[in-house]
């Protein structure tokens, strides 16, 4: 049973990190005749006004570079090259009329690359396959930097930290306004391939083309867009997370258990759902029950992003588009229904329907809604947000010539404890199809959540005949 759902542990650390050098990295060809670039309302929705921090670990035994150039120098040279076609990442953001953002350019802006070192080895960090909030020291932040600040910030910030064992980490912060997860993987792959090849490699060629998501005139809001609505918290959910210090918990979910949950969600024969539908439903239900949310008639929201690239036909997106092309799906259900026995299939149906509702028409309505009702802050009322990183080729994209990283992904969820992440399994072995679930919980709910996450294993055991 433990191999089906395994709680993963990480040590509490204080990693000593010394900053050695900070460089502005300009593209090898100057950005000419560019004053500003348009950002769509999908780029500029409130949830995209953040930097997404990720870290990548590389063992010393994987390094096979010619010592005429250091790893840092190779990364710098490749970044200068790749910032020619990806020049928007050298710009900055500013507000225009009605608080809308755009990218602008002035001389000598550039991306930021920070060199650092630590006197400890990678082995001192514990299990590198489990995201640890202590790794935030491997991500560069400015002194006294405001939370969620994106205005006048470098849009790409990289920190290379060398460890005493010879291995190193690459910590990245990319502004979400410039690219969604798939777009970030496209850029990362171009940087990695250029580093590996020694000359510029871009496949596909990057496409800006944000005007394709211009609002309509007149605007047409054709859906309720519950995902964006400001809801005064009328339940105990948000209070229990924000008034205590939540802890980050990680669980390895085997591929077999994911498949079992999917079959269980479809057992009525009336629903054809995906593994994500089933997993999201089980996690949502377990989380709400573990938090003991009251009152039971309160309506909660589950939100998650849906890649809309394949849904766009009029006109279709060009190959190489790396901006935000995401719709925010929203499923709603009362506490009572989410905590009732035997309702996994019903919850999976709600998630399934919410996912399928993100159509081209829904996306156009979203764009118009944001144009007329531009949110100014993140809304957490009665909400859990699930981010699915299992669909990204993050390990393959981050091969700079020294193989797959030992770990690639996010670090610390506790600043936004109502966000949960599904990650592909890391480590040095061959991928098994398992996923890593990262979620935030108050201390009082941790044991109960684990029990609920495991609650379906009895049926799984019976199905296996063990």
Highlighted features:
11 helices; alpha+beta; 466 residues; 6-stranded mixed β-sheet; Chloramphenicol Acetyltransferase; globular
Outline the secondary-structure elements.
Layout: E1 5-8, E2 18-25, E3 36-38, E4 51-58, H1 71-82, E5 92-95, E6 101-104, E7 111-117, E8 156-162, E9 168-175, H2 181-197, H3 237-242, E10 247-253, H4 255-265, H5 275-291, E11 299-307, E12 326-334, H6 335-338, H7 344-356, H8 360-372, E13 383-388, H9 394-397, E14 407-409, E15 419-424, E16 435-441, H10 443-453, H11 457-464
Parallel strand pairs: 7-8, 11-13, 13-15
Antiparallel strand pairs: 1-10, 2-7, 3-6, 4-9, 4-14, 5-6, 8-9, 10-16, 11-12, 15-16
Helix pairs in contact: 1-2, 4-5, 5-7, 5-10
What's the short story on this structure?
The protein has 466 residues and is α+β, with helices and mostly antiparallel strands. It is built from eleven helices and 16 strands.
Structure, described:
The protein is α+β, with helices and mostly antiparallel strands. The protein has two domains: 8-213, Chloramphenicol Acetyltransferase, CATH 3.30.559; 226-392 and 402-464, Chloramphenicol acetyltransferase-like domain (Chloramphenicol Acetyltransferase, 2-Layer Sandwich). It is 25% helix and 21% strand. It has eleven helices and 16 strands. It has helices spanning 71-82, 181-197, 237-242, 255-265, 275-291, 335-338, 344-356, 360-372, 394-397, 443-453, 457-464; strands at 5-8, 18-25, 36-38, 51-58, 92-95, 101-104, 111-117, 156-162, 168-175, 247-253, 299-307, 326-334, 383-388, 407-409, 419-424, 435-441. Strands 1-10-16-15-13-11-12 form a seven-stranded mixed sheet. The chain has a six-stranded mixed sheet with strand order 2-7-8-9-4-14, covered by helices on one side. A three-stranded antiparallel sheet has the order 3-6-5, with no helix packed on it. Helix 1 (71-82) packs across helix 2 (181-197), helix 4 (255-265) packs across helix 5 (275-291) and helix 5 crosses helix 10 (443-453). It is globular, with a radius of gyration of 22 Å. The mean pLDDT is 92. It holds the Pfam family Transferase. Belongs to the plant acyltransferase family. It comes from Penstemon smallii. This is Omega-hydroxypalmitate O-feruloyl transferase.
């Amino acid at each position: 049973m433990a191999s089906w759902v395994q709680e993963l542990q990480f040590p509490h650390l204080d990693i000593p990190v010394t900053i050695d050098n900070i460089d502005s990295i300009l593209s090898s060809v100057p950005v000419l005749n560019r004053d500003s670039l348009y950002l769509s309302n999908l780029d500029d929705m409130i949830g995209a006004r953040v930097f997404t921090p990720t870290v990548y670990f590389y063992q010393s035994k994987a390094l096979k570079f010619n010592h005429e150039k250091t790893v840092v120098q190779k990364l710098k040279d490749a970044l200068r090259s790749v910032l020619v076609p990806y020049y928007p990442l050298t710009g900055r953001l500013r507000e225009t009329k009605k608080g809308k953002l755009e990218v602008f350019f002035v001389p000598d802006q550039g991306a930021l690359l920070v060199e650092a070192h630590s006197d400890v080895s990678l082995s001192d960090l514990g299990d590198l396959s489990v995201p640890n909030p202590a790794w935030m020291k491997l991500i560069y932040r400015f002194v006294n930097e405001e939370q969620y600040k994106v205005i006048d910030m470098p849009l790409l910030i990289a920190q290379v930290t060398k460890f005493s064992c010879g291995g190193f980490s690459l910590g990245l912060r990319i502004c979400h306004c410039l690219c969604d997860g798939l777009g970030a993987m496209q850029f990362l792959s171009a940087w990695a391939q250029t580093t590996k090849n020694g000359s510029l490699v871009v496949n596909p060629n990057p496409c800006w083309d944000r005007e394709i998501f211009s609002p309509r005139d007149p605007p047409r809001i054709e859906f309720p867009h519950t995902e964006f609505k400001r809801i005064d918290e009328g339940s105990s959910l948000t209070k229990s997370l924000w008034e205590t210090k939540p802890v980050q918990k990680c669980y390895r979910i085997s591929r077999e258990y994911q498949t079992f949950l999917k079959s269980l969600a479809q057992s009525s024969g009336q629903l054809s759902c995906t593994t994500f539908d089933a997993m999201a439903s089980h996690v949502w239900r377990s989380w709400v029950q573990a938090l003991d949310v009251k009152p039971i008639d309160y309506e909660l929201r589950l939100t998650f992003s849906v890649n809309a690239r394949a849904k766009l036909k009029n006109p279709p997106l060009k190959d190489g588009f790396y901006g935000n092309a995401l719709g925010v799906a929203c499923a709603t259900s009362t506490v009572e229904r989410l905590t009732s026995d035997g309702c996994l299939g019903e919850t999976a149906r709600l998630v399934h329907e919410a996912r399928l509702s993100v159509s081209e028409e829904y996306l156009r309505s979203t764009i118009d809604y944001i144009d007329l009702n531009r949110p100014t802050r993140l809304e957490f009322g009665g909400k859990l947000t699930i981010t699915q990183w299992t669909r990204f080729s993050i390990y393959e994209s981050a091969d700079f010539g020294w193989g797959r990283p030992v770990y690639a992904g996010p670090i610390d969820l506790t600043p936004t404890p109502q966000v949960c992440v599904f990650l592909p399994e890391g480590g040095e072995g061959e991928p098994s199809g398992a996923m890593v679930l990262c979620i935030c919980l108050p201390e009082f709910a941790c044991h109960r959540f684990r029990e609920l996450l495991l609650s379906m294993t009895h049926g799984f055991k019976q199905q296996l005949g063990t």
